[in-house]
Design brief:
Elements lengths: L1 H19 L3 H12 L2 H23 L5 H24 L2 H20 L9 H19 L3 H10 L4 H26 L4 H25 L4 H21 L3
Helix pairs in contact: 1-2, 1-9, 2-3, 3-8, 3-9, 4-6, 4-8, 5-7, 5-10, 6-7, 7-10
Length: about 240
């Protein structure tokens, strides 16, 4: 029964990742953390997330814009250690509640048709990367700021998926290296991960097939709803 539940959760998370190119951890982490120790659930989710990102990038590789992504990545990497320090200064519950409510409000505004287009996207990726890095270093929430910005710019679904996936791969690799250095990648973690790879592949494959049936407008709305769910879960998790 334990394995069946894990498989169902990972299929659902893989589907969301294949469909929107983010959200795997949002779906998988709350459930897996209740089934297995958190010290094992976290690296498992990150490794599976890396696998999903690698699959998605193969499908969307032609649309990656490295001229913009490298600025986003560099800004995020510089800000991440500051985010960790920020967590030491501020109350985690306060930080999570403020962040969750803020991204929910922005996502709702975008759903209602409001937008704040930025002409110089390349330059704008600097503050977006900094915010993403700060949140990644403090509360492990790097995806929503980038997804919100791309949605605000009304980025086409293929470019959206490609850029956020390329960004996610870099963060996944760095995070996994950190886990390896700290000894979190145990034999049990690798065993669980291998068990769950087939279900992850099924979920991602279905998501990639489904995305081809959505136009840019419906994709954008779906991405915003996933962001709202992410913000809501962040707020709920403090209680």
């Amino acid at each position: 029964m334990f394995l069946v539940i894990c498989i169902i959760v990972v299929v659902a998370a893989g589907f969301i990742q294949g469909l929107t190119s983010f959200g795997f951890a949002l779906i998988a982490m709350p459930f897996l953390a209740r089934l297995i120790p958190l010290q094992q659930a976290v690296p498992i989710v990150v490794m599976l997330s890396l696998c999903t990102n690698l699959i998605v990038i193969i499908d969307a590789r032609r649309h990656v814009d490295l001229k913009k992504i490298w600025i986003l990545i560099l800004s995020s990497l510089v800000a991440a250690p500051i985010g960790t320090y920020l967590l030491l200064l501020l109350d985690e519950r306060l930080l999570k509640s403020f962040t969750g409510i803020f991204i929910i409000l922005i996502a709702i505004l975008l759903l209602l048709g409001k937008s704040f287009p930025v002409k110089n996207e390349k330059l704008a990726f600097v503050p977006v990367g900094i915010i993403s890095g700060l949140l990644n270093g403090s509360i492990s929430m790097s995806g929503p700021p980038v997804a919100l910005f791309l949605s605000n710019q009304r980025t086409g679904k293929e470019t959206f998926r490609a850029n956020i996936t390329a960004y996610g791969i870099i963060l996944n690799v760095i995070t996994i290296c950190t886990y390896a250095y700290s000894g979190m990648l145990t034999r049990q973690v690798f065993t669980y991960s291998l068990w769950l790879v087939p279900s992850m592949l099924i979920g991602v494959w279905i998501g990639i097939k489904a995305i081809r049936k959505l136009n840019d407008q419906w994709f954008r709305r779906l991405a915003l709803w996933v962001i709202i769910l992410s913000g809501a879960w962040t707020v709920i998790s403090i209680f």
